[in-house]
Every structure is written in C-alpha cells, then in structure tokens.
Write a structure and sequence with these properties.
The chain is built from 4 helices and 10 strands, in the order αββββαβββββαβα. With 164 residues, the chain is an alpha+beta fold. The chain has one domain: Trna Endonuclease, Chain: A, domain 1 (3-Layer(aba) Sandwich), CATH 3.40.1350.10. The strands form 2 sheets. The protein has a 7-stranded mixed beta sheet with strand order 9-6-5-3-2-1-10. A 3-stranded antiparallel beta sheet has the order 4-8-7. It is globular and about 40 Å long. The chain starts with a helix and ends in a 6-residue tail after the last helix.
C-alpha cells in the first residue's frame, strides 16, 4: 500500500472531506475541516506492534495543530491493518536511532541518526482489519469517489481556505 491508496481509503470510508496537501515538505499530509484535524500518513511494509514516528514529523504536525487549535493525527498502515493515533493523547519516550534511511519515499538511500518514538497499536484506533489483500483491493476500487484527488497547498490552509 502507498500513501495515495491509504488516503483514498480514508477519504472513502472515514473522512469524506479529507484533502491532501500538495507541498511534499509540508508539516502534514492531509487536512479535514469537518474533523478539525491535521493528518500525517505513513505506510509501513512490515507489521510492528509499536509503530515508529519520527520526532521531527511529530513536532511539526503538533506545532501546526497547536497554532490552529486542530487535532494532530498520525495514521499508519501495515500489512495487518491501519491504525489512527491522536497525538495529543500520547506521552512519547524519544530515543536516537542510527542507521535509519534519510527518506523512504525518495531515491536517497543515505543512512542517518533520527530521533524516534513508538506508538503501541493497542492504544490506537484500528480503522481497517488485518486483511491486507482486502485493503489493497478496496483502495484500488475508489470509482465511487466524486473527486478523490482534491489537493491544497499549505499556504491555502494557513489562510483558512475552505472549499468544502
């Protein structure tokens, strides 16, 4: 599963007003006006009972949410399901981990030290079941969505843009 598939599933099943942010270096990936939240998406290709979040990404989405009064949300997919975490409800213990990839979405394979924490899936909200093949099939069958590729840039959001 990739982030676009994850986005499509969330938009179709949970957050119909969910909009992607087009700036790839944004503080967050999506916004929902109706749910009053900023969302950071992550797709993991291996399942873990504790899902890693980078402190840098956590700080950025929390900071933006705190400035605007929105809820900071982290949604992560694994082969066993999709979990949602309200970052306001977690006290995360941070640690430095070396030899982590600088990025996972781009061609840069450089290894770096990152400060990371872990969110236990037992404390998250499971959005989809553990049938990965079913999740992929569902994500690829989004023909019922009216406009699944509505995008905003971060400037529009900062200015209170609202077209929904």
């Amino acid at each position: 599963m990739n982030e676009q598939m994850l986005f499509d599933m969330l938009k179709d099943e949970y957050y119909p007003d969910l909009m992607r942010v087009v700036d790839e270096y944004s503080n967050f990936d999506c916004v929902s006006e109706r749910e009053d939240m900023y969302v950071e998406l992550k797709c993991r290709y291996t399942h873990y009972d504790d899902l890693m979040i980078e402190k840098y990404k956590y700080d950025r989405v929390k900071e933006q949410a705190d400035l605007t009064g929105r809820i900071p949300i982290y949604i992560c997919s694994t082969p066993e399901g999709i979990w949602e975490f309200n970052l306001d409800t977690f006290k995360i213990k941070w640690e430095d981990r070396d030899n982590l990839p600088k990025t996972t979405e781009f061609e840069d394979t450089e290894k770096v030290v990152k400060t990371v924490g872990y969110l236990p899936i037992s404390e998250g909200k499971q959005l989809f079941s553990n049938d990965f093949d079913e999740m992929i099939e569902f994500a690829m069958n989004d023909s019922d969505l009216e406009d699944p590729y509505v995008f905003l840039d971060e400037e529009d959001i900062d200015e209170g843009y609202s077209s929904w």
